[in-house]
Amino acid sequence: MKIPRSNSLKALFTGLSLLVSAPAASASWLDSDFYCRTYGCVVVHDGFTFDVYDNYVFATGGTVPVGGRMIPWTGNPFQGSGGVNPVLTGSRTEGFHAVPLQDQSMILGFDTNGDGVPDRLPFDGNSNGFLDAGDSMDPFALTVGTSLVAADTSAQRSFYLSSRTDFYVTAEARMLGSPGGLNAPAQLDNVGFQYGVTRRGNDDGMAFGANSRNGNYIRQIGAINDLGDILGTPTRILEFRNSIRRRDATSLPSQSVRFDYVYGFGNYDLSMGDGHLQYEIEFDFYNR
Fold this sequence. Notes:
Blueprint: E1 9-12, E2 15-17, H1 34-39, E3 41-45, E4 50-54, E5 71-72, E6 87-88, E7 108-111, E8 147-150, E9 154-163, E10 167-175, E11 192-198, E12 201-203, E13 206-208, E14 218-220, E15 235-240, E16 257-264, E17 279-287
Antiparallel strand pairs: 1-2, 1-17, 3-4, 3-9, 4-5, 6-9, 7-8, 9-16, 10-15, 10-17, 11-16, 12-13, 14-15
């Protein structure tokens, strides 16, 4: 799915599309680039490609004021083609999922013991990963404790961050498509949203965090429990009160931390109606 470039990072219902582009660096230019060193910058990457958000305004000169949205680089020597994608948490595998068509839905099953996990799932006759007319289920008896639940109720995604400045992150949820049925703003109260930062690790052979800052400089802000809490308003969710990069390094991942987030529709039941729930989550970076 190709999305036009913007000054922010966007996440669709099917996953997060970080609208960035550049070839991967073999050494970290955070340690030598004049604008990053002098004015501060934030780098977002997926372990392969990256983009830079700056406090210096290249178009007009000057700097982004405190509380202002940081500026993505344009016309810089690192810009290229391609995009930074969300990854499945703990890997560098691209985290996009295909979207069900009009006559399909996500796989639904029946929970018979009340733990929220489906104990009986349909047979996916055409192995396309969606529920459609070709699927079937063996007969079984319903009880008062039987509930209809989604087979995959949450998505765990990540991307990587480094910086030579302090900054904060905002998130905003927006509805997409025509309203009606399941596609209604009130339904976002049922889509849980949690997030955090992993400081060090190794994802598919890529070690990260060894040259990132230690200490208690990262703050989660606000009481965000679901997408309804960030609907329609950019909401500050995370502060970095110091630069992430701690010292010179030969690789960008070693100077990075991993931002992890989980969103999921685990509270669905038939009383909510039918149709498609479509939304996007937009992440932005601001000068602190």
